[in-house]
Amino acid sequence: MAEVAHAEVGHGDHHDDHHEQSFWSKYIFSTDHKIIGFQYMFTGMAMALIGGYFAYVFRMQLAFPGASIPFWGTLSPAAYNSLVTNHGTIMIFWVAMPVLIAAMGNFLIPLMIGCDDMVFPKVNRLSFQIFLLSAIVLIISFFVPGGGFGGAWTAYPPLSAKAEFNATPFGAPLWLIAVTLEIVAFLLGGINFITTTMNARAKGMKMYDIPIIVWMIVIASILFMCSVGPLVAGAVMLLFDQTMGTAFFDANAGGDPVLWQHLFWFFGHPEVYVVLLPAMGIVGEVTCTFARKKLFAYKLILYSSVGLGILSFFVWAHHQFISGVDPRATYLFTTTTLLISIPVAIIMFAYIATLYGGSIRFTTAMLFGLAFTGEFLLGGVTGIWLGSSGTDIYLHDTYFVLAHFHYTFVPIAIIATFAAIYYWFPKMFGRKMNETWGKIHFWGTIIPFNGIFIPLFILGAGGQHRRIYNYQNFPDLAGADMQDMRVFATVSLIIMLIFQLVFIVNFIVSLKRGEKAGKNPWKANTLEWITESPPPHGNFGATMPEVYRGPYEYSVEGREKDYWPQNEKPEPENR
Amino acid sequence: MFEFIDKFMPGLLEMLLPRASSYAVQIDVLFDVITILVGFWFFLVLGYFFYLIFRYRHRDGHKAEYISGETHKQKQAIEIPHYLILACDVAIIIPTFLVWYNIKIEVPPPDEEIRIISQQWAWTFQHAGADGVLDTPDDIRSVNELHVKNNTQYTYHLESRDVMHSFSVPVFRLKQDAIPGRVISGHFKPILTGEWDIQCAEMCGVAHGIMGARIFIKSEAEYAAWIEANTPETAQKELLAVNEETISEAKEDPNNG
Amino acid sequence: MAHQIIATGRSRTGIPTGRLAVWWVIGSEILIFGGLIASYLLNRFNHGPSWSVEAANTNTFIGACNTFWLLTSSLFVVYAHAASERRDAAKTRMWIWLTILLGGFFMGFKTYEYATEIHHGFTLFTSNFWSFYYTATGLHGFHVLCGMVILALIAERDVKHEKNWHRVENIGLYWHFVDIVWIFLFPLMYIAK
Amino acid sequence: MAGHNHPSYLKIYIILVVLFAVSVIGPEVAPMFGAYAKAVVLLTAFGIAIWKAYLVCAYFMHLKFEKVYAPYILLACLSLLFVFFFGTATDAMFSNGHNWFKDLDEEAMVKEAEARSYVLNKDSHGDHGDHGHGAHDDHGDEDKAH
């Protein structure tokens, strides 16, 4: 059976052996996991620019309502709704997921578990192509008559179901199709990650020798796969409602609009952990390498993330406390929601404990890694106000919620991603990024980030609701001090966006002129660092690595070197 | 009980918004309790985190220790705080349940009922009128203006005509989504006279951003006068005119006023 | 350097990679169909009286025939798998084509059923019961159709040339899953009235 | 997985067909059980569906002989469905609950359904096809009226 599979895939890959590949077959239609990882990464970055631009436009509107916005013009309410909706959708589905799971998963999993590619390279390519198609469909949806969909990323029907309500007869279905395609792409990708890790590990790599980020990506893929099914069914139903006029979610004809909320949040809440776990994995890797420490309580972290995954299926209705679910059900969901703080806290404590007794090198990657831990702490704890149903009555759908989940999602999708890019850039492209500019970028990202969202916590606690395009319409919210905070947040955002230019320039310049990295610039243990930078096709050359120990054997006593690569044969006396 | 605890609390939310309903104090107290518990942990952990970063920064000739974190003693470094967090969780869950029960589960016998009908993009409030009974001819309907009597126990019935809306009165600390096809009931008791915002807190379409209303909490005398002035016999013509007028025009008045 | 992907040949779990992936695919399909069926059930319990009046109009005879076709095709596809393990290309192809034939019966009956129901005035838009009926059976029919196409491709491109034998088993698993979905759709849509 | 001692496929198939026959006959004979008719239908319809699904999974899909991972994967997915169902059932499945009710006239829906039902009307009206269409059109008009 296995031989046959070999022959088949080998055939498809045959032309990769020619040294003179065209640009197309090497970078566009490649089945190589590294190239597909890059494709995901660059598509994700491009979409992040769009999402960031949207954020800039609507923050400008909030700070200077009605003014003409540079690079946009005057913002209409419909366009505002559309920008808010698509900012959320893009940042979650087209930035966080592709960069954290797909790009990092594709690039790292085969390298870290010591095999030459994903188990289904063609499925992998197909996954990216569907993803790209979904991104294109989403972008098209901004330009159709009626404009892009503006019913919030949660797309609650009946607003999302009928054009007479949402006024976007083409935008809404296209948005839904784009999201569904994206989900299909990640189902294919996720199954690939899971089977690869289950089946294709290097010789000697046992359960507990797998680097934590691989575990995290696999758990996240499983979470995604298990949670998204009902949403796919729901998306089909909603699409029928939108385009054909069925009444699945139409209360007048006996449907139930709240059912969609359940279908959506049954996926939507685990989705938070789908993007959180890979980010935590990245930070775990970075922290260990630069603190020169073994990961504190590896097994406990692993079990906690599995527990986190399971528990995440029992909390979804905390998004619906006040949206019409039976109030008695809330007791259960409050309890589970507050309990979920425990596994998250265990992981965070373990990361902090990892620093204890370390020898911390403040590289840019490490700074971003530490910043993730610090900022995510705030994002995590603010969830408690919202998970507690009592305070959620007041805080639901205010800027407090918004600030809370930006304090989780920005560390996840932006800060951890930067940590990953600064950390693995040498492996990806063979050169290091400039550290000085990296540190300027770091401070230019972290300080404005807090400047954006801390005022929003206060605004939210003051009763300011989300998705409102002009607070001057509400006398209680139109006060000068509240407006000052909005302006402060907007200015912070602009500063943060400007500092991203530093990153882009640094990235491009380092591609060409960066310091040569060599095989293992950070003196790390995991398998990706034993091969060339960038890794050749097939990753490890003639002999595939064999694993003898866990991934975090740093500073082992009695050894001269403070790291101990996983594939290094143990010396006889140690045995 | 909440009033008593409130004496020892910083009253963070009250700094930002007054409390205009009988149960606002409960949510404020719960908010403060969570703030204190969580804030304590957050700053403790963050402080320790920064201490570790500073203490174990890289210095020449200094090598990191090898700590696996797998021994029982080392694991306690995580286990003990995690039991403490569990204790905090319980300390939060219990008052949470109480607050939730008081606000969303138990509906005290009402002095007066009110029907709230939401649609794109306006609120219609059906006041019980002079006789205090809903669905009688003397009901007073008003668009985007909710008039309530101070110190009166209200029960509201929330409906939606088209899409999801959310009835949010920040000064009451009250929020409830309106769902087409469902009638959702709840209660509030104003305790402070004045005039404040009502917002729609659920994305409801293009003009979601201006779907606001005003709540007027009146003393008994003012409220009686308002009833007097607005009962349909005397105000039928005006009311009809308001209803016939385009929604946006009707809405502009309270917001600008 | 090898041209072949080493990763695909590894099997740390002991389950061949292709089959492992199929299990995951089936797992996710369970949740997709399950989400739809759960939504159907929630509505059905909520609107019990009116939906049972609606459900009385489904054609139990055709539903039963279709169940029978799929059950039998499951037997055939498992025979195809048994034959493929003996590396008997001719037998494997025969059983696969018989499976496709029964799939074709299923689709034919389904088409006739849809036609009569539309003729009787029950379309996708008649009421929510019919929306669920057409969506669930349609999604299932789409899976049957996909299964038939893949079966045909495997029979003609792989089995005929005596390669990729494992694919017979993998598509068989998928086919059984489609059968199981129907086993549940049949009582839900046709029997419970 | 060849070489496992599983029962012959034909035997399983015959059991399946017998079960299938019982599930079809179930509703026909159920009225004989009087008060238990509904329970009998549920048992023959869904009890047997689960049994059949088990047989197909265990023997045709060889799950009985597969490595433990596979059944765990499927069971995990299945159990999540129950989580979803019971979490959602608190409001989606009922017409009224604590402090809320659904503003829907079930009796009117029954009447509508009866009016357009083909089975109920085919005896009284010879020309069933037209009637069905008529009923449907009426419904459509009502929808617009909402």
Explain what this protein looks like in three dimensions.
- With 575 residues, chain A is mainly α.
- Chain A contains 17 helices and no strands.
- Chain A has helices at residues 2-12, 23-28, 33-63, 77-112, 121-141, 163-166, 171-199, 212-243, 257-291, 298-311, 329-339, 341-355, 364-387, 389-395, 399-429, 435-461, 480-513.
- In chain A, helix 13 (364-387) runs parallel beside helix 16.
- In chain B, 43% of the residues lie in helices and 24% in strands.
- In chain B, strands 3-2-1-5-8 form a 5-stranded mixed beta sheet. In chain B, strands 4-10-9-6-7 form a 5-stranded mixed beta sheet.
- In chain B, helix 3 runs antiparallel to helix 4 (72-105).
- Chain C has one domain (16-191): Four Helix Bundle (Hemerythrin (Met), subunit A) (Up-down Bundle), CATH 1.20.120.80.
- The radius of gyration of chain C is 19 Å and the shape is elongated.
- Chain C has helices at 6-9, 17-46, 48-55, 60-85, 89-119, 128-159, 166-191.
- With 146 residues, chain D is mainly alpha-helical.
- Chain D folds into 3 domains: 7-66; 67-100; 105-145, no CATH class.
- A two-stranded antiparallel sheet of chain D has the order 1-2.
- In chain D, strand 1 and strand 2 (100-102) form a beta hairpin.
- Mean pLDDT of chain D is 79; it is low at 126-146.
- The B-D interface holds B 104-105, 107, 159, 181-186 and D 98-104.
- Strand 8 (182-188) of chain B pairs antiparallel with strand 2 of chain D, so a sheet runs across the interface.
Q: Spell out the CATH superfamily of chain C.
A: Cytochrome c oxidase, subunit III, four-helix bundle
Strand tally of chain C is: 0
General shape of chain D = flat
Radius of gyration of chain C: 19 Å
Helix-residue proportion of chain D: 55-70%
Arrangement of strands in the largest sheet of chain D: 1-2
- The mean pLDDT of chain D is 79
Structural class of chain D: mainly alpha
Radius of gyration of chain D: 23 Å
**Number of extended strands of chain D:** 2
Low-confidence stretches of chain C: none
Number of helices of chain C: 7
CATH architecture of chain C: Up-down Bundle
Largest interface: A-B, 97 and 87 residues
Alpha-beta classification of chain C: mainly alpha
Total of helices of chain D: 6
Largest sheet of chain C: none
- What number of structural domains do the residues of chain D give? 3
Flag low-confidence runs of chain D: 126-146
